[in-house]
Amino acid sequence: MVAPDLDRFVSDYHEALNEFFRGDSEPAKALYSHSEDANPFGPVAIGWEKVEEAIDRAASNYRDGRATGFETLATYATQELAYLVEVEHFEAKVGDQEGTTSGALRVTSVLRPEGGVWKVVHRHADPIATPRAAESVIQTLGERRALPSRLCSRPVPRVIRSALYLSSRGSYALSRDDVLPVRSREPSRAAVLRPMR
Length: 197
Known about the structure:
- The chain contains six helices and seven strands.
- With 197 residues, the protein is α+β, with helices and mostly antiparallel strands.
- The longest helix is centred in the N-terminal third of the chain and has 15 residues, at 6-20.
- The strands form two sheets. It has a four-stranded antiparallel β-sheet with strand order 1-2-3-4, covered by helices on one side. Strands 5-6-7 form a three-stranded antiparallel β-sheet, with no helix packed on it.
- It has helices spanning 6-20, 26-30, 48-59, 136-139, 158-161, 176-179; strands spanning 62-77, 82-94, 100-114, 117-126, 145-146, 165-167, 170-172.
- It folds into two domains: 6-126, Nuclear Transport Factor 2, Chain: A (Roll), CATH 3.10.450.50; 132-197, no CATH class.
- β2 (82-94) and β3 form a beta hairpin.
């Protein structure tokens, strides 16, 4: 088996992201695996129908934008798997905002060949594109409300619980190391959240 052309995929991926920042999700969806184990932009979703919804929802947050550049930090490919680590730079109108905002995302994409072409099976992106203090994670979460402890699947120390938040798109957790300076002798662990229904 010969691995698909990774350079060609990366070029198509960048063009799809350019369209994504204009609010058009179709080119990005064409590059995603439709398998049950694919993971989209945004919150975890299982099954193509939910992955497609998540990609559409994520693209709907942007309009009148474009990708302004890509810093490729690492790529690696075998015949069965590839990954791409980049910093994606963009500008767009975000949400209801009238002005254009620029941003950068640190992105890791995991790819697998399907039908002779690379397809995205997992994408993780976060705004941590430059070194920053641990406390900055809390400050950049935007409008939020404290997550009630009853939503956690195990007891979480109060200081960690205060760093768990619920966004309009779903719940997520920050690990102890993301929130606190490492002073404790306890091993770091993430607080696991059950999905809200």
